[in-house]
Specification:
alpha+beta, NADH Oxidase, four-stranded antiparallel β-sheet, 49% helix
């Protein structure tokens, strides 16, 4: 049927039968509810399947700079203390610099391995995942220099000697943006991993990249397209066991 004729039919019907207008309104409301439900499901899927990608990083495919710039534009919509917006993202694609940073990462990892590791009871999902976590960590250790891009999230100021509330405030002004960056990458088919081991040698990295002394590096994210089509939610401890109401230890 011609679109104009169809529109005229609907208008005439609404005049003759007012209930048809209510039906149309109801239909529109249902469509909005369905669209909202679909948006919620898509959002939940993104939030629950954005993983720290290691073994599935595609080491052979360069990352499109425009995609990264788009993700950064999304990331800077994150909360920022006092609206300071004093965050920075440092993107590293130079092979020699990536190799030097990867060497520092490996040096820090070797030192970290001497620390005691947590142990978990049988049946604890963390115990079940530990072997896989160690394997993926070992893979990143071996291949980090091959990852086509590193992105550092940084913030202006040095605050390691400041009171706890100030440290919380400053990290709270950069870490949400870094996580938003990872989510925005994931939505665009790009993977990343949250790493901090290289920051043991923050001064050496800063010198290598020409970063000023008054800038704090908060996280390093190896970035690459990922292999495969999707990720699954991780097995976690029940949220209820770690959620208290009004008083520590009190559950609903």
């Amino acid at each position: 049927m011609n679109a104009k004729i169809m529109l005229g039919f609907v208008v005439i019907l609404s005049i003759i039968d007012p209930s048809s207008r209510l039906y149309a309104q109801g239909s529109s409301t249902e469509k909005k509810k369905n669209a909202a439900a679909q948006d919620l499901a898509a959002t939940d899927h993104l939030l629950t399947t954005t993983r720290s990608v290691r073994k599935r990083l595609d080491l052979s495919r360069p990352v499109d700079p425009k995609v990264v710039e788009q993700a950064i534009n999304v990331a800077i919509q994150a909360p920022t203390g006092s609206n300071a917006q004093d965050w920075f993202f440092v993107v590293v694609t130079d092979p020699e610099k990536r190799k030097a940073i990867a060497d520092l990462y490996r040096k820090s990892t070797d030192e970290y391995r001497t620390r005691p590791r947590p142990t978990y009871a049988a049946g604890d999902p963390r115990a079940e995942q530990q072997k896989r976590l160690v394997e993926s960590g070992a893979y990143l250790y071996q291949h980090l220099h091959e990852v086509p891009m590193f992105v550092f999230a940084a913030i202006e100021g040095r605050f390691e000697n400041e009171p706890q509330f100030m440290q919380a405030s400053r990290y709270g002004s950069i870490l949400p943006a870094a996580w938003s960056f990872m989510l925005a990458l994931r939505a665009r088919g790009v993977g990343s991993a949250w790493t901090t081991l290289a920051l043991r040698y923050e001064k050496e990295i800063a010198k290598l990249l020409g970063i000023p002394d008054n800038i704090t590096l908060a996280v390093m994210m190896p970035v690459a397209y990922y292999t495969g089509s999707d990720f699954k939610p991780a097995k976690r401890l029940p949220a209820k066991e770690h959620t208290y109401w009004n008083t520590w230890g009190q559950q609903r």
